[in-house]
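Inputs:
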Amino acid sequence: MRVSHNLSNFTIKSRFMKAAFLETLENNKVRCTLCPHNCLLKPGETGKCTVRHNNEGTLVTETFNTVSALSIDPVEKKPLYHFYPGTQILSVGSFGCNMKCSFCQNHDISQPTIDILNRRKNTLSSRQIILEARGIDSNIGLAFTYNEPVVWYEFMKDMAVKARSEGMSTVMVSNGYINRDPLKEIMNYINAFNIDLKAFNDNFYREIAGARLKPVLKTLIEIGRSGKHLEITYLIIPGYNDNRNEFRDCISWLHDNIGPDVVLHLSRYFPSYNFSAPPTPASTMHEMHNIAKEKINFVYPGNINIPGIMDTVCPDCGSLITSRSGYSIKHRNIENGKCTDCGRLIYKYFRN
Ligand code: SF4
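Outputs:
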């Protein structure tokens, strides 16, 4: 597990917390309206995310201050390549997810068993996490990641509000499966997003992820139009979401709805959890990278080392802006976020 801090040093009492975004109904039933599942829960029932349940007519979150992982990471690892490149960010996560991806690489925390949840002993206050973040040199703020932060909404917001009031940046790494009202509310406190687009195919979402495509596209549009920093990750799984025609449609949609400067990460799949399909061939990574580059200016392969195409190049004049190897980077022709050769803006968020 991704824990670089000794969480037991901070342990405090875990607590249930009344959940936000719900409708109360007759006979002590409640409907959770946080995400598009809109789970209808009778007393004692738990939502699809496994971490929100109806406690005698009150919707509660079971993981309010429960932390599964806390680690200082390069911001590139989120992945965010155009948000203060070369800096570090304290990354924090909990348990649970509102999707059920059969290939999940973090299934130990995203799909926790009752036993794991019952043994959750790492609980922190948001103030403790902020203090930790403040004490790390070169840290730009807090990233909510590892499991799905949507299902950790109340504690994420608590941390984000405090982090922003102290001048830190906040990042949300998410599957984008969230209803519009909670999204608009949390966007007030988040500076940058990385949203997974798992396929451009509703059948894939229904059968493999236990969700739907349309709400994710709505989230992308909402964030894209808000002016918040947005990067997108597309994990390429051979035989599942690598149909070239479908991917061309996806790229056209991104171009038309988000714009050509959206940052797109094409991530290589490796077998995990319930999936045993072989890793994505390097040739597929190359081919889909080329398709994406027909319309999107900034496309990066991930989980694979392909020298050259991992670099950031100015789309206008072709100058090498940043060379990349793994998570280490070296800036070349960039000042104040702009290409020094032609003046084009490359990084809106940049530290010289
Ligand atoms: S957040 Fe959980 S309980 Fe609420 S609608 Fe989504 S899956 Fe259901």
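Remarks. The two ends are 33 Å apart (CA to CA). The first helix runs from residue 107 to 110.
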